């Protein structure tokens, strides 16, 4: 999947308007190193924007935090599988 280094468009960010993460603080989604991502993943699993969020993270090479229900390591593994 190609990495998009340009600024995201409004259309690419539309999912954020209804995303559950927008209703919580960033602490769940950007935990300290070694902290659990379980709560973030639980919120992501219930979120309608999960797939769009994950697509955004993969397209824009987001390297930190939980995006679309996946941690940094899980997104890295997914990218490697897609090659």
From TrEMBL:
Q: How is it modified after translation?
A: The Fe-S cluster can be nitrosylated by nitric oxide (NO). Upon Fe-S cluster removal intramolecular disulfide bonds are formed.
One GO BP: cell redox homeostasis
Family affiliation? Belongs to the WhiB family.
- From which source organism is this entry? Streptomyces ficellus
The identity of this protein, by name, is: Transcriptional regulator WhiB
Domain 4Fe-4S Wbl-type intervals: 20-77
Q: Provide the function of this protein.
A: Acts as a transcriptional regulator. Probably redox-responsive. The apo- but not holo-form probably binds DNA.
Q: Where does [4Fe-4S] cluster bind?
A: 21, 44, 47, 53
Q: Which UniProt keywords apply?
A: 4Fe-4S, Cytoplasm, Disulfide bond, DNA-binding, Iron, Iron-sulfur, Metal-binding, Transcription, Transcription regulation
Quick one: a GO cellular component term? Answer: cytoplasm
What's a single GO MF annotation on this record? metal ion binding
Spell out the HAMAP family in the cross-references. Answer: WhiB
Q: Which cofactor does it need?
A: [4Fe-4S] cluster
Instruction: List locations, semicolon-separated.
Output: Cytoplasm
What does the record's cofactor remark say about binding?
Binds 1 [4Fe-4S] cluster per subunit. Following nitrosylation of the [4Fe-4S] cluster binds 1 [4Fe-8(NO)] cluster per subunit.
């Amino acid at each position: 999947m190609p990495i998009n280094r340009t600024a995201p468009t409004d259309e690419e960010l539309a999912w954020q308007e209804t995303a559950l993460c927008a209703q919580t603080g960033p602490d769940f989604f950007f935990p300290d190193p070694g902290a659990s991502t379980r709560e973030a993943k639980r919120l992501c699993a219930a979120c309608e924007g999960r797939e769009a969020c994950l697509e955004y993270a993969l397209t824009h090479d987001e390297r930190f935090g939980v995006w679309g229900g996946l941690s940094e390591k899980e997104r890295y593994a997914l990218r490697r599988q897609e090659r």
